[in-house]
Fold each of these.
Amino acid sequence: MHKSVIVVATAVCIVSYSSCTCPNTFNNALLELHYGIVYKGHNTTFNGCVRGNSDITRIVLRTPTMNIFKGTFSNLTVLDYLALDNANLHVIEAQFAENLPKLRTFSASMNQIREIGYNVLNNLPLKNIYLSINTISEIANGAFSGMDLVYLHLNNNELHSINSNWFLNTTIKGLYLSSNHIELLWTETFSGIIGMETLDLGRNKIHYIDCDTFSTQRSLESLFMKGNSLLNLDFDIGSNLQVLDVSFNMIFSTSLERMTNVEAIIILPNPWVCKCLEKLVNESKLLNIKIMQRVAERTQERLNAPICVVADTTCGNNVAPVNTVHREYFRRVHYAKIIRYWVQWRSYPHDFENRNITFKRNWIQCFK
Ligand SMILES: *[C@@H]1O[C@H](CO)[C@@H](O)[C@H](O)[C@H]1NC(C)=O
Ligand SMILES: *[C@@H]1O[C@H](CO)[C@@H](O)[C@H](O)[C@H]1NC(C)=O
Ligand SMILES: *[C@@H]1O[C@H](CO)[C@@H](O)[C@H](O)[C@H]1NC(C)=O
Ligand SMILES: *[C@@H]1O[C@H](CO)[C@@H](O)[C@H](O)[C@H]1NC(C)=O
Ligand SMILES: *[C@@H]1O[C@H](CO)[C@@H](O)[C@H](O)[C@H]1NC(C)=O
């Protein structure tokens, strides 16, 4: 009988703290804890907080838990890794974690988190943040301010725009924002970010990019924008960009004049006007830019995209051709999540000239 009383009492705090008054956070959640230098795990259940411990290096939450309240994790002097993935999390309160001087990785992917507030993460010394596959649609001003990050993963969420105020004096090497609903990029969108090397904006709805959006990102090496709605490449890119992926967009005619330092552009498939693609290929040779294409791992007809779809005899003016061929193209050619793609170098002009581009008005033929 006394035993059960003791169990309840110790369940309030992982490490009994004489004056511990944790909010009731978890309902007998299971935590996998890893202690100290000798890497050994053990599981424990608790209802309250994890506080004042100098041995725990990793915490993995194993039980679905709706809310993580303020003060849940604090004064854990060697904690390096905190994972709350796939835990049915809806809310992470500001200051849920405090005084974790060694915390480098926070992961809360595959939850139902809708919002990242101020002082949820920006008060922690993190390097890596994984928030993929949630329902995040709101991020507070300053939510990542002053941080020095290697990876920030926000892909597969419900973001409709990027607010430049999320990042103020923020260092991020790799920013992953694919599979959201972002439409527009402005000059100031990334202006609070320093040292960005990789930016993934794939599978959004981007149809407009301000000319200077990327020009101040001097470290940017890889920019992935596959599966958006871009009509052209009418924007500047940082001087260091090596790879630009704009496959699966709506490009039918564009110039490389703003892309002069890029090494390779993945620009196929797109619904090209054949003559405009030919012009681009000529331009790419002059500028020494590689033209590449994405191809599906398993060739299925719907992914065996034509190299160009409008067989006009000139590369005429910049009115997007909308006709039955185009509608058929977009019905069949899209970037599918479940299919694996790789990037293939097309050696022009050989491949290009081998194709019977005068026949492209007939969709079924040009699909081969
Ligand atoms: C902790 O519990 C989880 C889930 O029941 C289990 O997979 C894991 O092996 C346990 N870890 C230890 C160290 O007992
Ligand atoms: C954390 O440690 C500081 C300094 O030892 C102490 O003042 C504070 O009360 C502790 N906080 C919690 C929540 O345990
Ligand atoms: C930016 O952050 C660095 C360290 O991360 C800091 O030294 C510097 O003072 C900050 N600058 C501003 C303007 O906040
Ligand atoms: C591309 O270059 C080839 C060879 O110089 C030339 O015959 C062709 O007319 C050019 N095409 C376009 C569209 O400029
Ligand atoms: C190109 O297509 C046209 C129309 O079907 C055909 O008459 C012609 O022989 C084809 N040319 C080549 C080189 O395959």
Amino acid sequence: MHSIDSLGEFAVPSRHYSVSQLSINERHKLMERAFVGLFRWYVDRSQTTRNWNPDRSFDWKNMRQDHSPEVMQILEGFFAVEQYIPDYSAHGMTIMRESYGRSSFHLRWGMEEERHADLWRNALLFSGQRTLDWVEDYTDQLRGQEWGLPWDNPCHMVFYTVFQERATQVNYLNLGLAARGEESHEVFANDADPVLAKACQMIAVDEAAHYNFFLEGARLWLYYFPERALEALADVLRHFTMPARNIIPNYDAFGELLHRTSIFGLRQHARDVVKVALENLGAESLRKIEEGIRRSREIPNELGKIRTSAIFESLDFSHIENRVKQMFGRVNRLEAEIGVPEEQVTKFVLNPELQAHFAAL
Ligand SMILES: [Fe+2]
Ligand SMILES: [Fe+2]
């Protein structure tokens, strides 16, 4: 097994090496470096392109005062989901505090999620249909419950967050369509509102950025720890539910309304979340992933290489590798602009196991 100190030698094309030359520690170290680079790239982009403020960036005093009861109920639900930021932040941190890049990102992410709670709070208050007392009471009621992590490890959580962020983005985009008076359900016929439309658009862009960060993280897991990551991906897909749905009062009525008005339901989840995210992860379907895992389990443990090959067939790893390389390219361009010295640059290192697998095809 190679020590972490010898990591530098792997920064050259992997065809010179045989299978299994990256130890577990080396893979973790590569992931850590990548997450730090990705975090810095993310912050740079966030500050230059998405530096909005939930108070000043919106013309709240001109928000419509006569939104439909359906829009009001949806705003309450969105507000409720974003009210558990203290739990999302605190509990998430317990499983990643040791990782510099991931914990730094988690803080930044929590800060951006906090402004989402503030944004929906403003939407409720400026709607003219909810009093400050009502919002405060509802906040107390929500905060009386505590959200817990759906998974207890960073690998499962990164996949969970990929689907959760995408689902949240789709919810906000679809309410945005209603607020723009476009292609939406008849109950929203009188809900066109440029102020609400802008709120939906700004917050959806944040959720898209979150989705992309976690997607890059998920690809890193798939690239350096394919077996573990694929099992996590399959687990998360089998058991996925939106955060806090079991603790938000009347969530079922909110969920039913989202479904009935085509803002979000099983169809949107399958078509706009799962299918899109799986494509972005180089996967075809849960069935294909499960098939690969099952086939790999049928192979005896002592034939480790064959076991690994079986699992590689359930995913398009050349797609993963290309996307991981592109992510490093973006990080490296930022580092070049900053003037990061060559020896400190975030270098992409091929996974020799994958290279050997593809070379053997
Ligand atoms: Fe959010
Ligand atoms: Fe988010």
Amino acid sequence: MNIATADSRLSEAEESGETIKDSAFMREALALAREAWAAGEVPVGAVVVKDGLIVGRGFNAPISGHDPSAHAEIRALRDAAQRLGNYRLAGCTLYVTIEPCAMCAGAIMHARIARLVYGAPDAKTGACGSVVDLFAEAKLNHHATVESGLLAGECGGLLSEFFAERRVQQKERRGED
Ligand SMILES: [Zn+2]
């Protein structure tokens, strides 16, 4: 009885430690999303983590890179694969502020990411349940478990603020004409 209680307390402590770590990595992804905003890009950020260390970072940059595939997740996967010298990122976790699109979900599967953690859902392009759920498709061979909602308010809020600011700027520009 006592042992069982001690065990359950231990697992609770481990779980909360895991949550703290997850939040810390998502905050790194949020910092990258702010870098995207500073560069005039839609603010999305991502990090790849292996054995508790960040091995890849990326923020959204399709406009500046003249590259439709330069989403935060793709750039973080490329960064991690280069650093690890392996196109397969087995055992890695990808943290991203916004629900991945179909392209990024595909790349996550090809990279064999073990765990995907995203913040806010994306009603327009989300491919992890919002528009489609590619990870629920049994015919697609993937290795990732998917978790959502981590710091969702901050992750989604950043995006809403960005678009609100852009609408104001566009209105001002129209006013000047
Ligand atoms: Zn994407």
Amino acid sequence: MSVFESSVDKSAVNDRSVVGSGNSPASEQPRPPRREFKARGSFVTRCDNCQLPVLNCLCPYQVKAESHAQVWLITHPIEHFKPTNTGRLIRDVITSTQVFTWYRTAPDARLAALLKDPRYAPFVIFPDDQPDYVDRVVGIDAVHAAKAQARIPVFIILDGTWRQARRMFRKSAYLDGLPVLPLRTERETRYRLRKPASKAHLCTAEVAIELLRQGGDTVAADVLDDYFDVFNDSYAASRLHHKIDPPTAAMRRLAAK
Ligand SMILES: [Zn+2]
């Protein structure tokens, strides 16, 4: 299983970067990419808040949800600048979400401190397809056990392409002592904005949705799933300069909250 977004990423070539927008991470400011992404659709007016074309602004559907478990994203610097990134959807819905920028040479000090905080039970979300860390692999029952001990389960998701995620996993010494939780799911991706190598490759938001659901945060998972659908549909429609009307079922559910 690979849970990460495909490395076949047409959006990186076709979409405008959002440098200088309101999309900066909660932690330090990432360095801008060396070259700006090409500018298909750069004439389109985007919403300052959600970054989508105003035609299909996501903001009316931004519903907050509470979850017991938390999601901490370690985001590859290049991901921050892709408007198709779905990690930001998690933070939009679940306000406890933490976003860290990954740098190979400088581990984030705030993250390092949080990892030592005994209130949290952090799990690195990663496939168990290599033998050298098999002794660290746990199942979802470990998440429920942490909750039973009044600790806050934390899903640490490496937000990047598959290649970037593997590099982050291997090159981040501060993750070496943490349990590794592979996501086991039958879900097939519904993400339409990047071409997946396989239907089993879920995007970052979908990974969070399934983990939250399996960990018992079903309400938060359902809200995030609807919000993901609205983002996915709205973004795809915007590429065709098409406004979604009438609202989809997910839009109606979120608007009713
Ligand atoms: Zn908006």
